[in-house]
Amino acid sequence: MGRPKKEFTARKTIQVNVRMTADDYSKVSNNAETIGLSIAEFIRRKITKKSLPKKKVSPSDRKLFVELSRVGNNLNQIAKVLNSGIRDPFSIHRQLEEVKTLLQYLKSNIAHNDR
């Protein structure tokens, strides 16, 4: 038993050919691949203003985002202490060391990431 035939109005019967530069094609291709769509479906959704799926984030990238968020949080805490007028050099020094350690960890992960 075969697949039911689509109604004529639902069929994609018209083909449109588009010329673009290699740079434009590369951008469209990368964008489509990032969200897991074919190039044709990506272009179809863009021109009809239909919603696009969320970008797929690899587990390693997700881990990097979390670590960057932690670094940002530490920097905000340091700025808050400095701007409050409270001088606690040990606390600030400890937090700066933690930020330094996290940044070194992130750099090593990015350097060893096999993209």
UniProtKB/TrEMBL annotation:
It comes from the Bacteria. Pfam families: NikA-like (PF21983). InterPro entries: NikA-like. This is MobC family plasmid mobilization relaxosome protein. It comes from Flagellimonas oceani. The lineage of its organism: Bacteria, Pseudomonadati, Bacteroidota, Flavobacteriia, Flavobacteriales.
